[in-house]
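FORM 7B - TANDEM STRUCTURE REPORT

SECTION 1: FIRST PROTEIN
SEQUENCE AND TOKENS:
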Amino acid sequence: MLNPEFGLPEIRAAAARIGASVERTPFLHSRTLSARYGAQVFIKFENLQFTASFKERGALNKLLTLSAAERQRGVIAMSAGNHAQGVAYHATRLGMRAVIVMPRGTPNVKVKAAAVHGARIVIEGENLAEASQHAHLLAEREGLVFIHPYDDPLIIAGQGTVALEMLEDVPDLDCLIVPVGGGGLIAGMATAAKALKPELRVFGVESRSYCAMYQRLKGLPVEVGGDTIAEGLAVRDVGETALSVVRGLVDEMLLVDEETIERAIVDLIEIEKTVAEGAGACGLAALIEHGARFAGQRIGIPLCGGNIDSRVLAAVLMRGLVRDGRLLRLRVAMPDISGSLAKAAGLIGEAGGNILEVQHERLFGRTSVKTPEVEFVVETRDREHGQMLISALRERGARVTLAEEAWR
């Protein structure tokens, strides 16, 4: 569907307008991911923008089109993080006052980053919808210009420059896999991609917890909510402009599980040596969960953001080790005699396990008081090595159980 307010000319104009102030990020072939999924996978590293997200493209395009009077009034935005940073950074750089309304629960790293870029931060609302209501009230009260994160033709045109660069670098792509929150990114990218290469297929990706675009397209009532690691996609009200474009230009919406998003974050760290936030990793998550349908194709994936709380990232990485069987919690029952603990630890070491934690349980164990339990958290090479380690312990007479099953 062609939108009269933005198309390829408007996206090209946005590229010319913002080109001197945003990064032309690398768009690189991933040999490891390509081999794993039987496709040719190319990743657009938008996490390397100065604010670590594609969002500054649309924000800057909008800011540069404001009149002198509007610049004098200042701007306001509601955002769970990345749009906030894009608006804050470029508004301050251009000499404008910026106010950002962020919902409670926004990751601290994003709140801090927006403040560092010079914006006044207001925390209000339990979600983006409530934050938006408060932002509109402040805009009216203080005479500020509201900068919408996704439902604005100028914002959408700015985001479309991502696809413009991808197809300039790799013209023979077969499809794009694009994360979807409010819909601004996929609307802009689909508009550019279909104009340049009509046969190219565009797939959108949402978390199953927040799949408002999928539900709107299916004519279903929008029911979203709950915790998600992809807070950048945690949108209830998708953009109406974006929705109209998605209806006409996007081939299919795909849904992914939270666990798959975590897997994608871990893979990007371990394989590509790059940090992605939950929303930024959703394109790869779709490839992980729906890989069969992309076999043999040339795939472009925007890694659209890297602003993840360090504590959350650490937990995701450790959970990944558990999930892959590289971190085990073993419960070993042993006689309550001198040297038993050292013997068990020695057996683990002989089998190649690396002991990270030890807890000697005398009071809350389930075995006889004469055979207390010891819990070992052990690092292994992989799941097979873990099973070999357990077998080696049992062969030497130790009673070993997994404290909990590694995630499958």
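SECTION 2: SECOND PROTEIN
SEQUENCE AND TOKENS:
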Amino acid sequence: MTQVIAINNHKGGVAKTTTCLSLGGALAEMGYTVLMIDLDPQAHLSLSLGVNPAQLHRHVGDSLLRKNSLVSVSRESTVLGLDIAPATPRLATVEKLLYGQEGYEFNLKQRIAALDDGMYDFVLIDSPPSMGPLTLNALTAADLLIIPVQAEYYASLSLKQLGNLAKLVQQRTNPDLTYRVLVTMYDRRNKICRVILNQLQTEIKPMLFETIIEVDTKLRESPAFNKPITTYAPKTRSAEQYRALAKELIQQNGRQ
């Protein structure tokens, strides 16, 4: 059964897109088939896999507007088993058009459900850092919401906002949605990082991934080379940490 995972935080600069790219690469490396859906009009995930948004004839917005299937708008990446349904800045217009459709929150869920059984083991959705139709589609379609956060002073505030959003989605469109928190860009040399991490481990331990993603220059470089970290720099600390995150997800999902 396909597991659908949305990755979101309203605060920018928390490695949201990097986590989607790197987790997808780690899962594909382990032999799973992965479809990554770029729902962010900035199209950073698409760019990170070498897709030029300006040259796209079809994009994920066409699927959201029920013009095309996800299969018809998606394409293979250079990583075996890793496909991408790309975005363009035109998604900002699509978001406005969605408001006029009844039940628009379910469009992506229906498109994913229409995929052939067994076509993908995982669907990863990179959603925009805002609350709107695109994010609502992502959370309505998802089994799990991953919230990447930095171990910094404002982490608890962003977590509260995302927690409230998840509860709202549970009440209105997706009662089965669960969410987990992933600490990213962690700097063990920084005292405030250690203090905030300890606070998170005390207050929300059941929702917190054991895996922690630390600061790594290679991790920042990998999108520029159109590769996930597991392909660009497979022996680095961050590559191993995203592999650990993938294993943690698989164990929790009961997969072998």
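SECTION 3: OBSERVATIONS ON SECOND PROTEIN
The radius of gyration is 17 Å.
Strands lie at 3-7, 34-38, 75-76, 82-85, 122-126, 144-150, 178-186, 208-214.

SECTION 4: SIGNATURE
Preparer initials: ____
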